[in-house]
Structure formats: structure tokens, C-alpha cells
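Hi R.,

Here's the chain you asked about this morning:
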Amino acid sequence: MDILNNPVAQCAVLMVVLAALLAAAFWGLRRFRDYIGQDQTNPSELLTNYREMHAQGVISDAEYRTIKSRLNAGMRHGSNESERAG
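And the predicted structure, written out as C-alpha cells:
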């Protein structure tokens, strides 16, 4: 264990440990981001679901119109952002 008394060896071990922790953090964040991304529902799918709920009488006309206008506004907003990014 004389190697660990050497300052250069200590620095090398510390860098290896930090690199391993950094790699684990990136791996964990990527998995979390992918998991969150899978959980999002497409606005057109949501609109279809709410249309069915409206047809079944689960939500009122006013509720359906409010939901539809908000989803349409969100889709337009998302469309504008994707055009700027592309």
C-alpha cells in the first residue's frame, strides 16, 4: 500500500473514481430522460380520448371546447418551436 502514499497515485485514483461517478451520473440521467420521454402522450391522441369522453357524456360541451382549444394551442406552439429548431 505504499503506492497510495504517493501524491501522483492518489490523484490518479481520485480521477478514476470521479470519472466512474460521472459516467454513472450520465447513465442515470439518460435512463431517467428516456423514461420520462416515453410517458408523454401525443396531443392528437389526447384529443381523440377527450372526443370519446365527450361523446359518452363524461365531459360537458364547455369542458370539451376548453380542452380542445388548449390542446390546439399547445400543438401550434410545439409546431412553431420545431420549425425554429429545424
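The chain has two domains: 1-40, 41-86.

Let me know if you need anything else.
M.
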